[in-house]
Design a protein that fits this description.
- This protein is about 65% helix and about 0% strand.
- It is mainly α.
- It is globular, with a radius of gyration of 19 Å.
């Protein structure tokens, strides 16, 4: 297989009708490492919205059970991508996501914002650091893929185009990013988790390198001291260099899914999608997405 042969295949597909297939080819074959990093960043930046960061702190899931919650989030999203929206496994993963969200009073605005991070951040990361930029087919397909996920989650008022998602993300962050002590605790726990995946002596270096990859609004919201210009330049250059090296490698012949990532540690003996995630706790709050708003929402 030639280096751009899979991209040629993607361009022969319909970016709307074949959105799930294009997204799977892009995320599992073309950019598996980059999608992992981009989706980590996508969900991480939502902590800087105080309403979201405080809620995550109150559940204590990301501060006291960081590895398990990281794994569950990655595996649930990965299950949908691997099996599709109509498959039993995909529907089970969507059902678990909706059951968890119904335990908390999450606004529709916050839900739309979180969805926008999943659409926008992979494109921004890949265009900056990966071995090639996303094609327009991939951008449209990714947008349609997450629009479908949003409909299954019953989120109202979903943007229709990538550009609308991007405008929503930028305006929402400009209006809502702010300091919150509890949100900072969730951020610190997440950074500690990422550092724990590597030898302990490397932890300070890895924390600095991770902060160097964050944008200024995120650093300001969490009140992190920005790394030096030298550290920032070196960290970003290292990730770009990785992308250039990947470009020289033969194309991937087998898909790589999140369950194969070395960072996933909670299920050495395997898992079932139905067992992933937290369980709804009665009395924790109202349903975050009223199911009457969309007939597509999966109970």
């Amino acid at each position: 297989m030639k280096r751009f042969e899979r991209l040629d295949r993607i361009r022969r597909l319909d970016p709307v009708a074949d959105a799930a297939e294009i997204y799977r080819l892009s995320a599992a074959f073309e950019f598996p490492w980059d999608y992992t990093r981009a989706l980590e960043l996508a969900l991480y930046r939502t902590y800087a919205v105080p309403a979201i960061g405080r809620l995550l702190a109150e559940t204590a899931e990301l501060t006291e059970r960081s590895q398990r919650r990281y794994d569950d989030t990655a595996l649930l999203l990965d299950t949908i991508m691997e099996h599709g929206f109509a498959a039993r496994e995909g529907l089970t993963a969507i059902r678990r996501i909706n059951q968890m969200h119904r335990s908390y009073d999450i606004s529709d605005d916050d839900m739309r914002y979180v969805l926008s991070t999943l659409v926008v951040m992979p494109r921004r990361w890949i265009d900056t650091y990966a071995w090639r930029r996303l094609s327009r087919h991939e951008i449209v397909a990714t947008t349609e893929y997450y629009r479908t996920l949003g409909r299954h989650m019953g989120i109202p008022g979903i943007p229709e185009t990538f550009e609308e998602f991007e405008a929503l993300l930028d305006s929402y962050e400009k209006e809502h990013f702010a300091w919150d002590e509890r949100a900072r605790q969730v951020s610190d726990a997440t950074l500690d988790l990422m550092a724990s995946w590597y030898p302990r002596p490397l932890a300070p270096l890895l924390r600095s390198a991770t902060l160097a990859l964050l944008d200024e609004p995120l650093l300001r919201a969490f009140r992190y001291e920005a790394p030096s210009a030298t550290v920032t330049a070196l960290a970003r250059r290292a990730v770009r260099t990785r992308g250039r090296l990947v470009r020289l490698l033969p194309p991937r012949r087998a898909p790589h899914f999140a369950r194969q990532n070395r960072e996933i540690k909670s299920y050495p003996n395997g898992y079932r999608p139905a067992d992933l995630g937290t369980r709804p706790v009665p009395g924790m709050g109202g349903c975050p997405v009223r199911q009457t708003k969309s007939a597509d929402a999966v109970e």
